[in-house]
Amino acid sequence: MLYTVLPLEEVLEGIEQEPGPTVQLTLGGITVEAEPLGNFQARVVRVLSTDPRHFLEPHCQPGFLIHGQIV
Amino acid sequence: MFEQPEAEQLPEREAPGLQTIKELGQTVTPGGPLAEEMPFHCLTIIGQIEGHLVLPPRNKTTKYEHVIPQLVAIEQNPKIKGLLVVLNTVGGDIEAGLAIAEMLKTMTTPVVSLVLGGGHSIGAPIAVAADHSLISETATMTIHPIRLSGLVIGVPQTYEYLDKMQERVIRFIVQHSRIPEETLREMMFRTGELVRDVGTVLVGSEAVRAGLIDEVGGVGTALNRLSQLVAQREGGMH
């Protein structure tokens, strides 16, 4: 349930578009869920860890672009 | 298309830096500003607070499932002495917003909040959850009722549910700020101030006069207050 000053049609514009498939990757020992973008790039969606320190790591923030081969 | 340079063409001294880029997408400079521990951390609550529903990519969002473990990490780290929460939010998911507010409220690490730009809707409980709250002179806070959104079956129970959600927000704000309940309710349902809606817009000092926020100020004042809270806490511990 949303409680916002923005009109709902503005917030939910484009909601019909399904998000892309995600993969699990390990970044420096931290498991993250990431969305492959092609061109050897992926974007971090969320951190999968119970260690709270992992959530403060700069390279694990949601939206961070990972470069490199995804195997 | 860019030409990818062949690995063997690169001078050897650049190799370690490039490895970092390949692995993480960024260069980490040891001994740089990040290597020094900062005593205060800063959490920015921006855009929409995203909760149970993944919002379309056009929205800037604060993801609560990421913020909550960060707060746990801050609470557990003795080197982090205080937390500054900077708010510039248009609102968002009620339960995610209240979850962040409850986390901030129950932390033993001193927390100061600063409303910059806007702290609307569910931003209000988050702002008041801090040990001390500030608002910048030009920042605004919109107090308005919760509206129906999403798939709602129009039965009387729906309105009771909506009412309960509304009560949760009101109770939290009243318990954690100086605003009297009657004033908050009157502001929430006031007509004539917002063009298409009921509610009230509070600008800077108006939020302080209403008792919602403790003080008008900026980042300097906020960090001073945080230092004072840390000193008080450390003084009390000895």
Taking all Cα atoms into account, the compactness measure Rg of chain B is 22 Å
> How many β-strand stretches of chain A?
5
Strand content of chain B: 15-25%
Major interchain interface with per-chain residue totals: A-B, 33 and 44 residues
Shape, principal axes of CA atoms of chain B: globular
The helix fraction of chain B, in percent, is 25-40%
> In terms of structural class, how would the helical and strand content of chain B be classed?
alpha/beta
- What is the class of chain B in the CATH system? Alpha Beta
Helical segment tally of chain B? 8
CATH topology of chain B, anyone? 2-enoyl-CoA Hydratase, Chain A, domain 1
Q: Which percent range fits the helix content of chain A? A: under 10%
Largest sheet of chain B: 6 strands, parallel
The shape of chain A, in one word, is extended
Name the poorly predicted regions of chain B.
1-32
Provide the succession of SSEs of chain A. Answer: EHEEEE
DSSP, total strands of chain B = 8
> Would you identify the regions of chain A where 5 or more consecutive residues have pLDDT less than 50?
none
- Helix count of chain A, per DSSP? 1
Mean of pLDDT of chain A: 85
Architecture overview:
The complex is a heterodimer of chains A (71) and B (238). Chain A has a domain at 19-67. In chain A, 6% of the residues lie in helices and 38% in strands. Chain A contains 1 helix and 5 strands, in the order E-H-E-E-E-E. Chain A is extended and about 40 Å long. The mean pLDDT of chain A is 85. Chain B has 8 helices and 8 strands; from the N terminus they run αββαβαβαββααβαβα. In chain B, the strands form 2 sheets. Chain B has a 6-stranded parallel β-sheet with strand order 2-1-3-4-5-8. In chain B, strands 6-7 form a two-stranded antiparallel ribbon. Chain B is globular and about 55 Å long. The A-B interface holds A 1-6, 8, 11-15, 17, 19, 27-28, 46-47, 49, 52-56, 58-59, 61-62, 64-68 and B 21-26, 34, 48, 53-59, 63, 65-66, 69-70, 72-74, 76-77, 90-95, 97, 118, 120-122, 142, 144, 146-147, 149-150, 165, 169.
